[in-house]
Amino acid sequence: MRDPTGPARRDPALVRWGLIAVGVGYLSLFVVVPLANVVVQAFAGGLPGYWRVLARDPDTRHAVRLTLAVAAAAVAANLSFGLAAAWAIARFRFPGRAILIALIDLPFSVSPVIAGLVYVLLFGLQGYGGPWLRAHGITIVFALPGLILATIFVTFPFIARELIPVMEATGADEEIAAITLGASGWQTFRRVTLPNVKWGLLYGVILCNARAMGEFGAAYVVSGHIAGKTDTLPLRAEKLLQEYDVPGAFAVASVLASMAVLTLVAKALVEWRARRVGQRP
Amino acid sequence: MPRREVLPGYRLSLGYATAYLGLVVLIPLAACFLRAAGLTRAQFLAAVWTDRAVAAYALTFGASLLAALTNAVFGLVLAWALGRYEFPGKRLLDSLVDVPLALPTAVAGLTFSNLYVETGWLGRLLVPLGIYGAYSRLAVVLVLAFTGLPFVVRTIQPVLESADPAVEEAAACLGATRGQTFWRVTLPYLRPAWITGFALAFARALGEYGSVVFVSGNLPYRTEIAPVLIVARLEEFAYAEATAIGSVLLVFSFAALLAINLLERWTGRRYA
Fold this sequence. Notes:
The structure holds 2 protein chains of 2 kinds.
Chain A: H1 13-42, H2 46-55, H3 58-91, H4 97-104, H5 112-123, H6 130-135, H7 144-154, H8 156-170, H9 173-180, H10 185-214, H11 217-223, H12 233-242, H13 246-276
Helix pairs in contact in A: 1-13, 2-13, 3-7, 3-8, 3-10, 5-7, 5-11, 7-11, 8-10, 9-10, 10-13, 12-13
Chain B: H1 10-37, H2 41-48, H3 51-84, H4 90-96, H5 99-102, H6 105-116, H7 123-126, H8 137-162, H9 165-173, H10 178-207, H11 212-215, H12 226-235, H13 239-267
Helix pairs in contact in B: 1-13, 2-13, 3-8, 3-10, 6-8, 8-10, 9-10, 10-13, 12-13
């Protein structure tokens, strides 16, 4: 245990409490008060009112189902990528490896609006593949496939960038031993690799899922924003606000906010477990 | 060349990963540039260099810069308090720092606009003083400061915690005051992480849409950021113009990414 208050490193009490007060004040202003406001506004009409706006509105109910479906599909897709990329990057050395690692982070720096735009350009009616898709009766943009694709794009790096360092840190010794002892590649992966990286994997899935459920910009552009059809929960909140249904918008927002809090709790639990078994993160 | 390993799956995993990356990320991004390249020079300039677009870039940059600077200052204070002091509620405070990463941006936008309007909790106090924290440029800065809050804290905190106490103790032994030690020893040590955190917060703010669209009022020339302008063009079915502005924004993002990568190489650590 490091000693943060060795005499040479101890700040005067006034400085100490001053800095703590500034930090607490900043976080209160930017995080605590806004979160509290979500809860208070959502319950402004009392508990029955809250329940009514959430459960009675068929469009909101549809948005809940759609959000869950889109997030599940995006997480599954990026999980498959994350595992493949981590296996290739952490277990082999090949030319272009550093470029591959850098490219994985690319979607983090692209505006979500552009993530939506590029799929509209590819698959929209005026896009490159638009005429062909139309001729074959396939709709991607302003429909579920577009939503899933755009969500995959914005959540692309989460699982891979958590898994790669974990797999690097675990090392290949146990896997090489398994293979040498006659296990098949699949057996090795399932029995040796997965148990070794499971906490890192779970950590990535949690972060990926949170971002997938909360994505607004990319979903806004590709979905066409059709109530009861392509509105996810964040889009539903915006539409309710546009209709001046402020309690409704905040009720939906409170669902998303509680999802965020759950995500942080799950993240803390995974960090705690991973530390106990000696795994990163 | 790959090490000839006993481990299987090299071709399969690398093939799948590169194909997936290409299909999901690279080809779509290339489509954006290809579409923009299809425009003539005059068409491209007419799209990206209008007064409205320039005002949008200026606001996007200015607000992102101000928000990142705010976080650079307060993020350092927070990281210091969390990394160096013990106080009641520290664990809770520490987990609150991550809220902006987990909270959907639309929720942030919704609650910020509601807080700072005349009838909101904070607007009630600020609007009489002439401070408009909603539907203004200030609103854009405020909400971008929220979305960028974790980056500076989370880049400085681990460096601060792993710093060798002996260095500061040596400074103290050699007769430096606490202030001198901070300015001459600790701060230079933190500087690379500090700048990286600032760059991450800035880059994140450049592309932000979901939160800003709720708080800014989206007035052309006044409170419209570049991503909002792209969406506005798309809604007018002006795809070529939207793509042109989009490719300008993409170039800025790539420049920011490159800068961050160089910074991380300099600091020798990656932000997890």
